Predict the 3D structure of the following.
Amino acid sequence: MRLPQNSDYVPAKEAAAILGLSPETLRFWRYTGKYKDMLPPFMHISRKIFYKKADVQRFSEISMSAA
């Protein structure tokens, strides 16, 4: 299943790019529970991970202000 181009959701690879992380780092955080309370929720579609774009941008702003 493919998401429409104007979808509110982005694939994990794009979410990682928005956050300035490697996709592997984002996956590691997801599976280990690191930043569990702050990481945006994700959803599975056809064995792929997607994040809501607004949530990723919000997390980016929070993590930038904490640094």
Summary: The mean pLDDT is 85.
